[in-house]
Amino acid sequence: MSQALLKTIDWTKTPLLPVIAQEARNGDVLMLAYMNEEALMLTLSTGFAHYYSRSRQSLWKKGESSGHVQHVQEAYLDCDSDTLLLKVEQEGVACHTGRSSCFFNRLDKDEAPKEEAKAIQGYSISDTIYHIVQERKHADPKTSYVASLLQKGDNSILKKVVEEAGEFCFAIKDGESKEIIYEAADLMFHTLVALGAKDIHPSLISKELERRLGLSGIEEKNSRNEH
């Protein structure tokens, strides 16, 4: 790696660099993501693309859960030292929708995507729902339940969360396992829609729960008051 070029990156000014990933074999543009300094150093040292997820607020290796990794063939820094280009050999697909590239929505003409979306094994259900919510922000509310909720705004979304929470509580009280599971799924789904509406990835909730492990209830409340 070129130490001289690395020193030209001002990580204080730009802590996250945009990264364009391009298929080395045919030149197709696959995706745009972001790297912090740690992600870039891991990418250069391992030969596998690592990025920093702004929604999860954490480092991630591309394809770690799905197997759709990116083998880095070449890495370039632009003239202003604030944008990166990776030429990669992509295993599987680059996009979480199951398409080969994230750039499938054509703007200059009304044209349907050439590839159909496909489920990718390895993604958690909460991650999948989060991405669906993000996509439904631009969908037709007449054809999508999630889009219709998002269009109606916070009050409608939160009304559904409260409604589903009540039904879950009644199911717990009745003690029927099948109903408890069904209502819990409804509650979790609408909670994920509410989180997605605010661009909060469910993994951040998992991190908060992990932080609380080992803390007593009193300690947790005290730590909350300190903030």
TrEMBL record:
Q: Report keywords, A-Z.
A: Amino-acid biosynthesis, ATP-binding, Cytoplasm, Histidine biosynthesis, Hydrolase, Multifunctional enzyme, Nucleotide-binding
Gene designation: hisI
Alphabetical list of Pfam families matching this protein: PRA-CH, PRA-PH
Entry keyword Cytoplasm = yes
- Quote the PANTHER family the UniProt record gives: HISTIDINE BIOSYNTHESIS BIFUNCTIONAL PROTEIN, HISTIDINE BIOSYNTHESIS BIFUNCTIONAL PROTEIN HISIE
What residue ranges are annotated as transmembrane?
none
Q: What is this protein called?
A: Histidine biosynthesis bifunctional protein HisIE
Subcellular localization is given as: Cytoplasm
Q: Where is this region: Phosphoribosyl-ATP pyrophosphohydrolase?
A: 126-227
Functional pathway: Amino-acid biosynthesis; L-histidine biosynthesis; L-histidine from 5-phospho-alpha-D-ribose 1-diphosphate: step 3/9; Amino-acid biosynthesis; L-histidine biosynthesis; L-histidine from 5-phospho-alpha-D-ribose 1-diphosphate: step 2/9
Concerning its family, UniProt says: In the N-terminal section; belongs to the PRA-CH family. In the C-terminal section; belongs to the PRA-PH family.
EC number, UniProt record: 3.5.4.19, 3.6.1.31
Catalyzed reactions per annotation? 1-(5-phospho-beta-D-ribosyl)-5'-AMP + H2O = 1-(5-phospho-beta-D-ribosyl)-5-[(5-phospho-beta-D-ribosylamino)methylideneamino]imidazole-4-carboxamide; 1-(5-phospho-beta-D-ribosyl)-ATP + H2O = 1-(5-phospho-beta-D-ribosyl)-5'-AMP + diphosphate + H(+)
